[in-house]
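fyi for ur records
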Amino acid sequence: MKHDVRMRGFAERVDVEIVDAFLAEHAQVLGGETVPLLECVGRVLAEDVTAKFDVPGFPRSAMDGYAILGEESFGASNYDAIRLNVVGISLPGSPFEPRLERGQAIRIMTGAPIPDGADAVVKAEVCEEEGGIVSISEAVAPQKNVGAIGEDIRRGEVVLSRGRRLRPQDAGLLSSIGRAEISCVRAPRVRLVVTGDELLPPGSSPSGSQIVDSNSVVLRGLIARDGGSSLPFEILPDIPERIRQAMASDDADVVLVSGGTSVGQEDHAPRLLSELGELSYHGISMRPSSPTGIGRIDGRFVFLLPGNPVSCLAAYEFFAGPTIRALGGRNRAWPHRHARVPLARKIASEIGRTDYVRVAVDNGLATPLATAGASILSSTVRAAGAVIVARELEGMPEGAEVDVLLYDEEPGAEIGLAGAARGGWSA
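which gave:
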């Protein structure tokens, strides 16, 4: 597929779907790296994992009771108990070593090895022990209450497949088969290039005409959510050469430029990206975030994100987020739960433009908070989530059911929605 790499400005805007297809085509999963077992949760496997050991590697008891030769219990009942000599005990990590002979039993705890000569465990509840003799009032068949070798995992079995995002229980399984480290897809390295003479570092107090940078704080959180690793950065003044050096740095897989992405006097990033590499798209048919630019420098993805906080958030979610997830081996789909909710009032839009609309959800109804106001970051805090209005639609009427992409990560948090599911964006 050949793409026009000319700087588009805003005389022409490209559809969201075209940019999304371009990114999906070019974002290839990064290579693998060795990760310690204790740090692998949340990472994506870069290899199939085959067990080199049986788990368990020995027959073990499934309950507390007595290990016996099963056939010796046949005929046992409450009226005619079978009596066996208790000759020892088997504990987890401390097995009974001698061979069990006929007429004998050993006390055994859950998870302890079954001794040679025994083939069943009778549960403690149907046994009475006194003076070294156990009376058994219920018969057990051979292999009853015995966990066989390889019952959990068989040697040679593929237990986890490449591309799986590891959960805590997956890490536990890896530990059980003796893995101290694992090959995982390398976490994408992301460089933030935050520009603006008016910006103060996060943690500062607003002063005069200067404002405190919030975009880097939001972006770092989103990058971590998506499995990326943020590189150290500093806020840069609107000096082209400083911005050029930061954008050209070759230590990152993805560069996110915040601010200076439009067509104004201090908007240097689009020109610099064109000079350093290729500016594939600049100006997108969406609201907010229309000044977004996307390109590459020596194969590294560069996203020019608008300085307005809501525009920056939306542009990241539409374009940078899916790319970072894809590079790290994750699903490109938006990582939000979503729920079908009726609109409390209509959403106005225009055919040919994709809208990202913040909504509150109260009493089971979604209320649009704003369709403009790209600098109002607090609107994303008041919102339960966002509704995406596809470019084919001329808004959405009151009462229409819409998919709300929920900002919170806990099911039903704050808004009490049931049955929400994870998924990609849709209108």
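Residues 1-9, 411-427 have pLDDT under 50 and may be disordered. thats all i got for now
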